[in-house]
Amino acid sequence: MTIVPILVLALGTFAFRFGGTLMRDRVTMPDRVKELLSTGAVVLLVALVATSALAKGQGFAGWALPAGVAVGGVLAWRKAPFVVVVVAAAATTALLRLAGVA
Predict the structure, then answer these.
(1) Is 39 helix (H, G, I), strand (E, B) or coil?
(2) N or C end: fewer C-beta atoms under 10 angstroms in the chain?
(3) Which element (helix H / strand E) includes 20?
(4) Where are the transmembrane segments (predicted)?
(5) Rounded to an integer, what distance in angstroms lies between the CA atom of residue 38 and that of residue 44?
(6) CA–CA gap between residue 11 and residue 33 (Å, rounded)
(7) Contact 28/49 with Cβ under 8 angstroms?
(8) Res. 58 pLDDT band, cuts 50 70 90
(9) What residues contact 73, with CB distance under 8 A and at least 6 apart?
């Protein structure tokens, strides 16, 4: 019963991606539109990070999780290796929770 919607979504995804490949040379976007799309992607990613870092369920996640995300963000901004970013963010959150910071 669930295989039909899965196949329809897979076919639709493939069609969108294939259509983009076919239309790449035919459609041109102004530089301003490209800039706005890039900015929109960054804003969407920041909103996702903020929502994930600040909320847990229906309430505030506590201070340990946003602090870990902030440490990871600073390390990523400073171009640290991905593994270092993830481990430092997790360690910061874990150590703060161990210290009693909720």
Answers:
(1) helix
(2) N
(3) helix 3-23
(4) 6-24, 36-54, 60-77, 82-100
(5) 10
(6) 28
(7) no
(8) confident
(9) 49
